[in-house]
Design the sequence.
DNA sequence: AAGTAAATGTTGCACTTGCAACATTTAACA
DNA sequence: TGTTAAATGTTGCAAGTGCAACATTTACTT
């Protein structure tokens, strides 16, 4: 997985940060970064910590739009749509105004080009991740969403073991289903012998899954 | 909306296409492009036409992952996840192997930089669009999905009139809901006086919408 | 270690929605 | 223009799920 400053030595990275006029942010757990930022489009780089891009409904429903882990990058645009970035863990972030990246025209240092390519690569990968997310959310039943999620995770890491990257409450939010109903369905899947659960480790006991055919047990 | 070759004159565009070894594709209506491509990661540019990135479930459920209109750009990666690109209208496409874009190192022509910036800009905007999609799919009821979609479209164009970019069958697929159930709910919304429907033109009759509060009529 | 908050497990019930089956309208095309 | 296909409208019903309310476990905090 490419990171934002890959292939750029510390000295050149420092130069870049100066040119971009980056600002550094230390965010406490459970606090938002919205009040401490300005600009119309920002690139954020998480040095360490864990962020969530969320959209709060007035009715209390929390939609997890994106999750941003260590050394990950996100972009935030301020328009008609208001998202919030909340630190689930204490986080250190670097913020760059997108315009400062783009407006550099005759700066033909190779590390600037490298930076652009990194950012492009990261953004494209992000798009693919979002495609997967969309694919999951397209499933109509809780069972199919869970199985689709498991299958994707399993394929991604090439093993039948899945370590959930977040807790079950957040997983329910991520899959956009009711936590209690999810809990019920996980129990069903366990009892029917399709999965095994030990804390945040889930083992897939089925060979192949398609949402139409019955599951094939091994 | 930035397009892939914006700010690049025809002569330089031609040079770029040569260096990138682009291939041109003419796709008939309702046919897939999967069989005619190779590479591990592709950038596609739709000269004219209309494409859909879809994921077919064995049970016949069609998930619309992305829709690609005229002069739009998409990226396609071949990994564990198999998507299909289908032309809903006869389309002309330019395909570029992503590696050919990235592997150019000491080519410091300004139009190459411009191209990279365009691609970056487009990809970021794409990410935001997918965020909106995710936001919609996060809603748990048909009514809320419809209203969220309408609100986003309305805000985007700054008017209370919405012209659906596709037919109702596809809209249902896009919102990942049953077409019949959607038809039923649209009827309800009409009868309750929240919207007005004339073909593919929908007029919003409410001032503000939040999925918790009751709708405010005007 | 005690006390509090957060996360997880459980279950009944009302309601929404997917599904199926069919009618009707509109579009496509020879 | 007539014929066929596609899109849209309608509705009963069974099934799945959100919601609420609560029990229990685990994680924090001082």
Sequence:
């Amino acid at each position: 997985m490419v990171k934002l400053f890959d292939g750029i030595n510390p000295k050149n990275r420092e130069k870049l940060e100066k040119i971009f006029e980056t600002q550094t942010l230390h965010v406490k757990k459970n606090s938002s970064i919205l009040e401490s930022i300005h600009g119309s489009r920002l690139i954020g780089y998480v040095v360490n910590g864990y962020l969530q891009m969320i959209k709060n409904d007035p009715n209390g429903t929390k939609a997890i739009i994106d999750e941003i882990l260590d050394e990950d990058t996100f972009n935030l645009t301020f328009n008609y749509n208001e998202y919030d970035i909340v630190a689930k863990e204490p986080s250190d972030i670097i913020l760059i105004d997108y315009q400062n990246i783009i407006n550099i025209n005759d700066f033909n240092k190779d590390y600037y080009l490298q930076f652009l390519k990194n950012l492009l690569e990261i953004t494209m990968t992000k798009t693919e991740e979002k495609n997967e997310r969309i694919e999951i959310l397209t499933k109509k039943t809780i069972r199919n969403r869970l199985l689709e999620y498991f299958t994707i995770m399993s394929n991604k890491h090439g093993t039948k073991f899945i370590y959930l990257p977040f807790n079950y409450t957040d997983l329910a939010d991520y899959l956009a289903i009711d936590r209690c109903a999810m809990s019920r369905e996980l129990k069903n899947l366990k009892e029917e012998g399709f999965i095994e659960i030990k804390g945040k480790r889930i083992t897939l006991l089925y060979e192949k899954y398609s949402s139409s055919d019955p599951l094939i047990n091994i």
Remarks:
- Strands of chain A lie at 23-27, 41-56, 62-68, 73-77, 84-97, 161-163, 195-198, 201-204.
- Residues 140-141, 167-169, 179-180, 183-184, 187 of chain A lie near DNA strand C (CB under 10 Å from a C1').
- Residues 211-218 of chain A have pLDDT under 50 and may be disordered.
